[in-house]
Amino acid sequence: MFFDFHALDSRDTYKLMASTVVPRPIAWVVTLKENGKLNAAPFSFFNVLSGEPPVIGLGIGRHGADKKDTSLNIERTGEFVVNLVPAPLAEAMNVTAAEYPYDVDEIDVAGLQTLPSRKVKPPRIAGSPVALECRLWKEIDVDGLRTIYLARVEGVHVDDGAVLDAQRCHIDALKLDAIGRLHGADWYVKTSDNFRMPRRKPDTPRG
Questions:
Q1: In degrees, to the nearest 5, what angle opens at C-alpha 89 toward C-alphas 45 and 163?
Q2: CATH code, residues 10-182
Q3: Which of 47, 61, 125, 195 has the fewest CB atoms within 10 Å, i.e. is most exposed?
Q4: Reported confidence tier of residue 199, pLDDT bands at 50, 70, 90
Q5: Is Metal-binding one of the keywords (predicted)?
Q6: How far apart are CA 102 and CA 104, in angstroms?
């Protein structure tokens, strides 16, 4: 079946995009508020866009005409930390997904601990297996409805238990125990179900 996005309203195009491009990694973003408190919120319109230079893309919608707290903080400071969500912290992540008033510290509400970052001011979430320290590079407004943030990754923290060879930068992705988003508002996926398929070469006969 073909869905013509020009014939659908924004609610339906969102549902189709969110339920067909799966699984999506979750960016658990930590930013600093003007009052010095922390903001933490998950976003699944996110991915790595470039390895060299290291660039990630993060799409954040709005509340009507108002930008979300994460957007305001990123634009004001130019810094944020993207934490991946491990299965044991899924419920805490879900707590921070609620819409709290600006003066509420979501880290505190979710009972999370933080660790200092190296290159940016916002801290990272303790217990997250991967934390990308990001600095805003470019900002793209999408029809006043969503903002796409392109950011350079200044460095990444990886859980020691997932590092196979630090010198060669080899990581065991399975040990990260990361979760992702699936269709609908409440569905998630674990990375524990996987398979390996070596990349084919042009002269490799089909098996």
A1: 85
A2: 2.30.110.10
A3: 195
A4: confident
A5: no
A6: 6
Residue 205's pLDDT is 67
pLDDT in tens, 6-29: 999 988 998 999 999 999 999 999
Q: Helix or strand or coil: residue 183? A: coil
Residue partners of 191: CB distance under 8 A and separation at least 6: 173, 174, 176, 177, 178, 179, 180
Phi then psi for 21, rounded to 5 degrees? -90, 85
Mean pLDDT of the chain: 94
Task: Fill in the DSSP letter of residue 1.
Answer: -
Report domain extents, the chain.
Answer: 10-182
Q: Among all chains, which residue has been given the structure tokens 């600006």?
A: 102
List helix spans (H) across 21-168.
69-77, 90-96, 106-109
Q: What is the pLDDT of residues 169-187, one digit of tens each?
A: 999 999 999 999 998 779 9
Q: Do 81 and 134 touch, CB atoms closer than 8 A?
A: yes
Phi, psi of 30 (to 5 degrees): -110, 130
